[in-house]
Amino acid sequence: MRLGALPLLLLTSCTAATTTAAPPSSAPAPQATAPAPSPTTVQALKLDAATPMKTASSTPFTVSAGWYVTEDQGRLLLEDPERQLRLTLLEVPGPSAERALAEAWKQTQPGFALPVMHSAHPPAQDGWDEVFQNTYEPPAQESRVIVGLARRKGDTNYVILLDGAAAAMERRGAQANQVLLGFKSARLSEESFAGKAPLPLTPERLRSFESFLEQARATMKIPGVAVAVVQGNQVLYEKGFGVRELGKPEPVTPRTLFLIGSTSKSLTTLMMARLVDEGLFTWKTPATQLLPDFSLADAEVTKKLTVQNTVCACTGMPRQDMEMLFEYAGVTGEQRISEMRRMKPTTRIGETYQYSNPMVTAGGYMAAHAAEPGLPLGQAYDRVMQTRVFDALGMKSTTFDFARAAKLEHASPHGMTATFEYVPLPLSVEEAVVPVRPAGGAWSNLRDMERYVMLELSKGRTPEGQQLVSEANLLARREPQVKMSDTMSYGLGLMVGEDHGARLIHHGGNTLGFSSNMFFLPDANVGVVLLTNVQGDGPFRSAVRRKFLELLFDGRDEARTQLDFALKNRREQLEKGMADIRVKPDLEWLKTLAGTWHNEGLGRVTLRVEGAGAVFDAGEWRSSVGEKQENDGSRTLILMDPPLAGFDFQSKQEAGGTTLVLELPQQRYVFEKQAAQASGKP
Question: Which of helix, strand or coil describes residue 238?
Answer without folding.
Answer: strand
